[in-house]
Design goal:
With 200 residues, the chain is mostly beta strands. Helix content is 6%, strand content 50%.
């Protein structure tokens, strides 16, 4: 299998529909969400994602807007990735996702869209842990990983050291209805990366 580049998502990664079909539909968007994982800085750790990108493929206005309540954002559907950290020595786990913010609870997808990230089912060395914000003023609703927020793996309120960390990353992506007010094929992208930081 050909290895995909993690740092950049290119438009030619998606097969484009034939020119004749594009002209007939009138409104087409290509949607890609590129995500990467940077190596640990405090220890010899490997941070990885099960997929380097989420590809929503070709989106057609008629297919999505028919199911959409007027005036509300268009939901592209939930995607789930697996996030893993493997370290040579035990240590506490502190994570951050860095991307262009879209408000206080999401990240930018294209010019006006957004996506949110929620970390679920986190474990350290096979033991279930909670993910708490490093700063007491940070508030995360429903497990959302907020822009600029650092979360730490804890058990019983105390940071838990371990060699292996895993969590599911739930991604929800939204586009405003006027995103489909285009007359040609348009690329929508969102990008960002997870970072492993010195633990708390």
């Amino acid at each position: 299998m050909k290895r995909l580049r993690r740092s950049v998502v290119r438009s030619n990664a998606v097969e484009r529909p034939a020119r004749k079909v594009r002209a007939a539909l009138g409104y087409v968007l290509l949607a890609l969400l590129g995500m990467a994982a940077r190596e640990g800085v405090a220890q010899e750790c490997r941070l990885s994602l099960s997929q380097p990108k989420v590809d929503y493929g070709v989106l057609r206005r008629t297919e999505l807007l028919d199911e959409q309540t007027s005036g509300r954002n268009i939901v592209l559907g939930k995607r789930t990735l697996q996030l893993s950290v493997l370290c040579a020595e035990p240590g506490t786990v502190a994570l951050r996702f860095t991307g262009a913010p879209a408000g206080a609870q999401g990240f930018r997808f294209g010019r006006h869209g957004s996506f949110t990230l929620a970390l679920k089912n986190a474990q350290v060395d096979g033991r279930a842990v909670e993910l708490s914000a490093a700063q007491p003023t940070d508030v995360s609703a429903g497990g959302l990983l907020l822009p600029g927020q650092v979360v730490i793996a804890k058990a019983g309120g105390t940071p838990l050291a371990g060699k292996r960390f895993s969590a599911q990353v739930h991604i929800d992506t939204y586009l405003p209805p006027d995103a489909f007010s285009v007359r040609q094929e348009t690329q929508f992208e969102g990008q960002g990366h997870f970072e492993l930081l010195p633990g708390g």
